Amino acid sequence: MPSTPSAPVLLGNEPGSFPHSVLAERHPAVIRQVREAFPYGPEQHRALDALLDSCTKGVIEELPADAHDRDRWQAWGLGQYAGRSWFDVPWLWSESYFYRRLLEAVGYFAPGPWQGIDPFRPFKLAELDSPETDEELAALDALESEPPPRRAAALLHGSLWGNRADLGFRLSAAGAQAARATQPAPGLVADDSETLWSLLPPSRAGTLCLVADNAGRELVPDLLLVAHLLAHGSAERAVLHVKPYPYYVSDATTADVVDAVRRLTAAPGAAAGYGRRLWSALTDGRLTVRAHPFSCSPLPYAAMPGDLREEFGAATLTVFKGDLNYRRLVGDHLWPPTTPFADVTDHFPGPVAALRTLKSDVITGLDASTEAALDATEGGHWRVGGVHALIQVRP
Ligand SMILES: O=P(O)(O)OC[C@H]1O[C@](O)(CO)[C@@H](O)[C@@H]1O
C-alpha cells in the first residue's frame, strides 16, 4: 500500500476515548452479565474475579502451560504483550484476548461439565426469540410480491442494518445514548451498492464468502440474503465464516447458525421458505459453514494465513459484516477518514465488500464533504454511535 499514509494503531490507554471505555467499563460489565446468567461454581467465580482484577488493574498474563491454543497465541503476539497493561497494547489485541480469557474462566475449554457452554447463549436466544425478530420475519411476506432486484436490495439493507443489533454494544451506556440522540436519522455515509451488485449478476456462477458478525438479529438477515443470492443465481455456492468459539458477546458460532436456521424453518409465512432453502443448501453443500481459528485472532486480515488467503482469493466476492470485521479488514488504525478504502484493502486477495454500522473510530473511504458534514452536526459521535452505516466495495 505505498500511497497509503501511515496512521496510529488504536490503543486503549487514553481516558475518555472510546477504546478506553470498552476496556474500563464494557469488559467489567460483560463479566458481571456472564456471572449473573449462569449458576457457576466457586472456582469459576474465583477465576472471573481474577480476570476482572487483571483486565482493569493488572497486566496481560500468559496462558496456562497446557492451553490447547498456547502456540497459536504465542504466534499472535502473546510473548510480546505478556506483562504489559491491557490498556497499553493494541486495542484489538487486548479485546480479543479478553474474550479468550473469559471463556477459560468459565470452563469453556477444559474437559468437564462446562466445556463448550456458551456464556452468551442466554442473551443470544432471548434476542432470537424476541418480538422484534417476529416482526422482521413477518415483513418478508410483503417482499414476496416484489421483483427479485428490489427484494435483493431490501435484503441487503436488512443485513446491513442488522449490524445494529449487537449485544456487546448495548452494554455501553455511551453507545446507547449516542444512538438515541441522533435517531431517527440513520444514513449511509458511503454506498457502493451498485458496484456490489455488478459483482453478483444473476447469471454468475461462483462462490460468495460472507464473514459473519453477530448472531440473532444480524445473522438472520445475513442468512436471508445468502438464501436469496443462492436461489437467484448470483452465487452458485456460499461459505459462511463464523467464529470457532463465543467472542465479543454476540458473535455467531456454528450453534448460532443452527439456531437461526431452525428459527426460520419454524416461523410462519415466507420466512419458513427461506429456512427450508437454507437447510437444503447446507445439506447439499451449496452453503457451507467455516469456523477458522483466524476468525478469533487479535490480528488484522492483512496477516491472515495462507489457507484463508487462498479461499478468499478464489471467491467471486467476500463480504465482511460488522464493525469488528471492518477494523480487522482495513487495519485497526486511526486513518484519516478520506483514506481510500481500496488502498487499505489492497492486501486482500479478491473482490471485497464491507457492510457495517459505525461503532468505533476506524473509518476510511469517506469523501471530504461527508466527513465535514458529520463532524459539523455530530462532533465525533458519528464514528461510534451505531447510527450510520456504510457499504464499501473494492472490486
Ligand atoms: O458487532 P460489531 O459490529 O463487530 O461491533 C463490535 C463492537 O465491539 C467493539 O469492538 C467494542 O467492543 C467495537 O469496535 C464495536 O463497536
Brief digest:
The chain has 395 residues and is of the alpha/beta class.
| CATH third-level topology of the largest domain | Rossmann fold
| Fourth-tier CATH superfamily name of the largest domain | Uncharacterised protein PF01937, DUF89, domain 3
* Structural domain tally: 2
Mean pLDDT score: 93
Strand order in the sheet with the most strands: 1-7-6-5-2-3-4
User: Low-confidence runs (pLDDT<50, min 5 residues)?
Assistant: 171-186
Q: What fraction, in percent, of the residue positions are helical?
A: 40-55%
The topology string of helices and strands comes to: HHHHHHHHHHEHEHEHHEHEHHEHE
**Ligands in the structure?**
6-O-phosphono-beta-D-fructofuranose
Instruction: Give the overall silhouette.
Output: globular
What structural class should be given to the helix and strand makeup?
alpha/beta
Secondary structure: number of strands = 7
Quickly name the level 1 CATH class of the largest domain.
Answer: Alpha Beta
The major beta sheet can be summarized as: 7 strands, mixed
- Name the beta content range: 5-15%
The count of helical stretches stands at 18
Instruction: Give the end-to-end Cα distance, rounded to a whole number of Å.
Output: 16 Å
What is the CA-based Rg, rounded? 20 Å
CATH architecture of the largest domain: 3-Layer(aba) Sandwich
